[in-house]
Amino acid sequence: MVPQAGSRKHIPLDAWESKLAAVRVPKDDMNKLIMNFLVTEGYVEAARMFAKESGTAPGVNLDAITDRMEVRRALQSGDVEAAVARVNDLDPEILESQPKLFFHLQQQRLIELIRAGNVESALDFAQENLAPLAEENAEFLEELERTVALLAFEDTNASPVGDLMDVAQRQKTASELNAAILQSQAQEREPRLPLLLKLLLWAQAQLDERATYPRINDIVTAQLVPPTKAE
After folding, report:
1. Mean pLDDT of each 10-residue bin along the chain, 231 residues long
2. In what residue span(s) does the CTLH domain sit (predicted)?
C-alpha cells in the first residue's frame, strides 16, 4: 500500500542539493560514459574530437563505425536495398541468423514501395518475399496484414495503420539493425546513458512512495523541482 502524503518523509531542496554535492563521480567515468554514447550511436567525428580533447580511448576502430552509419543512413532515407547490401558486405551472417530482423527489413521495403505509390509492385513483393516468412510465424503474419492494410487507404498517413508510414518506423528498423551489427562486432547493443536515465526514472518512482523530494521531471533540462509538503 502506498503511504499517505502526510506519512512520507519530506526532503527540502537545500538538503537534497547538499547530498548531491557530496557525491563525487570520477571524471574518467563520465568521459567513458560520453564516449560510449558517441561510439554506440555512431557519432564518429564527435568521438574523434572527444578522444583528442579528453584523452579517452574509444575502445573500438572508429573506421568500422563509419560503415555501420552508412547502413543506418541508407535505411533512414528509405533505401533498404542499399542497407541490406551493405550489411551483407560487413557480415552476411547478421541477417542469416536473425529472421525477425530480416523480416522487418523486408517489411520496410514493402512500406517504401507503398510510400512510392507502386501498388502492383508492393503486392508482388509482399506475396513473393513476405508471405512465405509469415506462413512460418504468426507474429510476422500479423505485421504483414497491418502493412498490406495500408493499400486500402488513399491517404495512408491518416489510416489506422498510418504509424507505419511515419519516419519513426524507419528509425525503429534502423535501430534494430544497428543493434544487430553492434552485437556481431561484440559491442554493446545500447549506449549506457539512456539506460542510466531509465534507472533514474525507476528510482524516482520507487522513492515517490516513501518521500516528497526534489524530482527531475524533465530529463532534458535535468532541473530539480522543489517538493511541496502537500504532495
Report:
1. 61 91 90 90 88 91 83 93 93 93 97 95 96 92 95 89 95 92 80 86 92 90 82 46
2. 64-121
Give the integer Cα–Cα distance in Å for 115 and 117: 5
How many CA atoms does the CB half-sphere of 121 hold within 13 Å?
Answer: 10
C-alpha to C-alpha distance for 51 and 35, rounded to whole angstroms: 8
Amino acid, res. 78: G
Q: Is 146 exposed, middle or buried (0-12, 13-18, 19+ CB in 10 A)?
A: middle
Cβ-contact 219, 200 below 8 angstroms: yes
What is the residue extent of each domain of the chain? 91-184, 194-231
The pTM of the whole model exceeds 0.90: no
3-state class (DSSP) for residue 216:
strand
